[in-house]
Amino acid sequence: MISVKGLSKKFDGKVVVKNINLDFEPGNVYGIVGENGAGKTTLFRCLAGLETYEGIISCATGALKNNLGFLPADLFFFSKITGMEYIRLLCNARKKNIQHIERKNIFDLPLGQYASTYSTGMQKKLALTAILLQENDYFILDEPFNGVDIQSNILIAEIILELKKLGKTIVLSSHIFSTLSTTCDMLHLIHNGSISHSVKKEDFNQLEDQMKKIIIGDKIERLHLK
Amino acid sequence: MGDYFKLQSLLIRRALSETGFGTRAGFVLLISFFSVSSIYLFYITRYASFIYCLTAVGFLLRLSEIKRNDFLKTIFTRSLYYKTRIAENLLVVLPFTVFLFIYSPFSYSIGLAIFSILFGFVTLPKPIKFTLPTPFYKHPFEFIIGFRNTFFLYPLLYALTFVAVYVDNFNLGIASVLGVFVIVVSFYARPENVYYVWSFSSTPKQFIFTKLITALLLVSVLVLPPALFLLAFNFYSWHYLILFLAIGYLFLGAVIGAKYAAYPHHINIPQAFTLGLCIYFPPLLLVAIPYFLYDANKNLKHVLNDIS
After folding, report:
1. What are the tens digits of pLDDT across the range A40-49?
2. What is the C-alpha separation between A37 and A43, in angstroms, rounded?
3. Which parts of chain A have pLDDT scores under 70?
4. Using a CB-CB distance cutoff of 8 angstroms, which residues of chain A are in contact with residue B192?
């Protein structure tokens, strides 16, 4: 279990994440929903230990980062490293000697090509494949469906459900509500750095209606589309 | 077109102000630097005009890059696009033509200006998706990327070793061996994205130890062939060769230590100065290495979340 208590993060005096208290249980998928700039990515980076923060993040199995597969929203690839070499690098970093990588290339990526030449979606699939092969217990997936083709999105959703079955803990964000409603057990709404609502699966539809009402408001009318 | 150049001028002013000198001072410094380097270049070599033209062409090539040009084509009409390209190319080569006009035959500056106009009609093709094989493909990224970036230099250095043996110049052979170390040190010049350090489930000590061992083993693959070849024909000088190899290995270790002592930033001025001193006085490496490694160990605790 990952336990987050009183998590806050400031950048140059500006509070980006404010007093967040959350528990992430094994075998559950948690969705973090919020507008751009609401603090999702900062929250994820704090959980991963990539940012310093105030508060406590604890993990039942010791150091979280050593068992964490983190898929950042903004991926970085070296200019002359192939897909295969990238996967091997990330697996070696976790001391995993993975055999038959070609067989596990379920997204049919051109692993012999430089990863920097991949499209956005292919890079995301490569990064996801690498963290899956690391055999982690915890996953933080920042917008895993973004920029990925529809076929792969279906596959990613199935992978998440399979990880859930295996008792892994998954925290993800997405701007596509349908992907969240298919995969998540619970949604946490983040607004201005704080968790404003937490909703269980049975109330997702209600939440979607509420969100639509708040988000759309009179904005379409204000556009005066002609 | 006017708006485009106004925007470019704004971008240049922003870049100058980000240097920390301010826009005006940055501009003056830039012009001074360019002028001094140009005068110096024409002073030191008779190939200056050739190097100068090549440098200017290098800038023109960057302006002909496909993504940038595709964008320009989407925002300008066809004629305006070509006018912009030509004007931009002429502006870029203008400082070069001024110095060429002063220091070289007239034809050079005129030739460069005409070439820049013609280059306004050129867009470079997309880079070929060719993957260069590397013997280091199973190892961490430094040697994979470094080898691919510098592969063409090894045949030259190895040929230099061969020439050194052929003309019986041991010092030239040592220079070729040290050249390999210089190339490998460059693999560690830039700090990698923090994700690639964070991913490791190691303590800082284990992390640095693995980096050092990997570097020392893999550099041997590149450096031992010319070193052994040199040794075979200069056996009586084996102790000099061992000495220079030891300095090479130790210097590489020091650079790795300094890199992670400064991580995630670039190696800072005091560290670079210390490394520079080590080149002039190699015994200093015996003090610098433990110092850098101690700092690196302390520094990596945060990224690797080592709470021990």
Report:
1. 999 999 999 8
2. 11
3. none
4. 78
**Is A66 in Cβ contact with B149 (below 8 Å)?**
no
Sign of the dihedral through C-alpha B130, B134, B136, B142: negative
- Quick one: which of B299, B275, B307, B305 has its CA closest to B208? B299
Digit-coded pLDDT (tens) for B5-18: 888 888 888 888 77
A50, B199 contact by CB (below 8 A): no
Contacts of B196 in chain A (CB under 8 A): 89, 93
Q: How far is CA B33 from the centre of its chain?
A: 19
Phi then psi for residue B202, to 5 deg, are: -130, 160
Q: Per this entry, what is the length of chain B? A: 308
User: How many angstroms separate the CA of residue A217 from the nearest CA in chain B?
Assistant: 34
Q: Give the chain B residue nearest A71 (alpha carbons).
A: B195
A34, A11 contact by CB (below 8 A): no
Best of B187, B199, B214 to substitute, by most chain A Cβ atoms within 10 angstroms, is: B199
Contact A163, A93 (CB under 8 A): no
Flag whether pLDDT at B289 surpasses 90. Answer: yes
Q: In terms of pTM, does the model score above 0.90?
A: no
Q: Which of A52, A78, A90 lies at the smallest CB-CB distance from B145?
A: A78
- Predicted pLDDT at A5: 95
Q: Which residues is B90 bridged to in the sheet?
A: none
Tens digit of each residue's pLDDT (9 = 90 or more) over B221-262: 999 999 999 999 987 888 999 999 999 999 999 999 999 999
Give the strand pairing for A186-191 and A194-200. antiparallel
Q: Which residues pair with A24 in a beta bridge?
A: A2
Sheet holding A186-191, edge to edge: A68-71, A138-142, A169-173, A29-33, A186-191, A194-200
Whether residues B131 and A112 touch (CB distance < 8 A) is answered with yes
Distance CA B165, CA B71 (A): 54
Q: What is the value of ipTM here, to two decimals?
A: 0.83
Q: A10 burial class (0-12, 13-18, 19+ CB within 10 angstroms)?
A: middle
How many CB pairs below 8 Å do chains A and B form together?
A: 63
The span from the CA of B235 to the CA of B241, in Å, is 9
Arithmetic mean of pLDDT, B63-74: 88
Structure tokens at B12: 């240049």
Is B201 in contact with A65 (Cβ distance < 8 A)?
A: yes
Which structure tokens are listed for B192? 């990698």
Burial zone of A169 (CB within 10 Å; 0-12 exposed, 13-18 middle, 19+ buried): buried
